[in-house]
Amino acid sequence: MSVAGDVAADPSRNLVAVNGFFGENLVLFDVTDPSAPTELADIDIGYNSDVQFAGTVLYVNHERLNRGFDIFDTSTPSNPTLVRSIDQSAGSLALNDCHNLWPQPDRGLLYCASTATGDVVVMATGEGGVGSPTDPSFLTTIASPNGGIGVHDVYALGDRLYVAFLDGGIAIYNINDATNPVLLGTQTYQDNFTHNVWPTTSGDYLFTTDEVIGGKLRVWDIRDPGDIKFVTSYGRNDGAVIHNVEIVGDRAYISYYTEGLVVLDISDPTAPVELGNDDFIDGPDVIDSEFFSALRGAWGVEPAPPFIYVSDTTSGLRIYRMD
User: Fold this and answer.
1) Torsion angles phi and psi, residue 315, rounded to 5
2) E strands of 115-236, at which residues?
3) Per-residue pLDDT tens for 31-82?
4) CA 289 to CA 104: how far, in whole Å?
5) Distance (Å, whole) CA 59 – CA 26
6) Which of 39, 82, 225, 309 could staple 302 via S-S, CB 3.0–4.6 A?
7) What one-character DSSP code corresponds to residue 41?
């Protein structure tokens, strides 16, 4: 792939999806033999920035042309079927510019981080008998409690919703009643540009990334959501840009653009220890102090231990094994 964006995996079917972002294509791979992935499908779907599996349903979101997201049935991975497109013509669910999507199948919910409005759009895909994975229904929207330019990322775990509001910082909500999210706590900090959020499995700590030159991974104590406390930070290179972090068990996996893939031991979340990395991009991290020149390399990371799937903006899909 000439330009890769996000990556998602369905380990139960040995299936990986990579979007093309500016390359405007969606590619599905069979990774039964991870050392020799097989391309199953390549679909031209227009500008897209995130992919997420929910069973055999694949959500592919858009951020231009007044489009929200597409819903694909991947029951036959070699022939993904477009079931529905959510865009400006979708009635009560009309929306556009979803930068990130987060499905929560166990709750029958789906969340869109809309860069068009700066709000989180909450949808039902079965919650309360409303909607389905292929026919979501609008429930409510959540605006940044601190103002700013808007939302960028969401993560839901149980009855908690964690939101990255860019210059509006972090927000945590109780979503026991998804139609009426209740703000539990919020935190801003100096020079915040909260791009990505991911809680530990225990829900005691939250990891965030700031997608700016010199931005770092930050760890927050959220045991009391009403009093979010900064714990520590981690960074590899002040000339690089960090992108996303995902957590599985006691390891944090980071897509760090020009710094490549980084894996941390977070068995003690207050003191992350680097286990390894693959810095696969040669040359300077930033060219002439230009921010967008630093957005090369590891865009997305999807851990499915012992395998790690990484989307590389310069070459496509990269597959690692880490025992």
Assistant:
1) -145, -20
2) 120-124, 137-142, 153-157, 160-164, 170-174, 182-187, 194-199, 205-210, 217-221, 229-234
3) 999 999 999 999 888 777 789 999 999 999 887 767 889 999 999 999 999 9
4) 39
5) 11
6) 309
7) E
Fill in the amino acid letter for 226. Answer: G
Asked if residues 142 and 156 have their Cβ atoms less than 8 Å apart, the reply is no
Beta carbons within 8 Å of 131's beta carbon, 6+ residues apart = 108, 123, 124, 125, 137
Instruction: Please give the backbone phi and psi of residue 54, each rounded to the nearest 5 degrees, phi first.
Output: -140, 85
Nearest Cα to 87, choosing from 104, 62, 111? 62
pLDDT below 50 — which residues of the chain?
A: none
Give the per-residue pLDDT at 70: 92
Calculate what percentage of the chain has a pLDDT beyond 90: 74
CA distance 272 to 245: 13
φ, ψ dihedrals at 11, nearest 5°: -60, -30
Judged by DSSP in three states, 13 sits in helix
What is d(CA 144, CA 35) in angstroms, rounded to the nearest whole number?
Answer: 43
23: left (phi over 0), alpha (psi -120 to 50) or beta: alpha
Token pair belonging to 106:
């166990």
Query: What span, in angstroms and rounded, lies between the C-alpha atoms of 30 and 17?
Result: 9
Q: What is the pLDDT of residue 23?
A: 62
Rounded CA-CA distance 88/128 in Å is 25
CB 1 within 8 A of CB 317: yes
Q: Which token pair is 252?
A: 């944090």
Q: What is the largest CA-CA distance in the chain?
A: 54
The torsion defined by the Cα of 187, 190, 196 and 199, in degrees rounded to 10, comes to -40
Closest Cα partner for 140 from 118, 124, 157, 160? Answer: 124
Q: Which of 305, 323, 216, 299 is nearest to 20 (CA)?
A: 299
Q: What is the pLDDT of residue 92?
A: 73
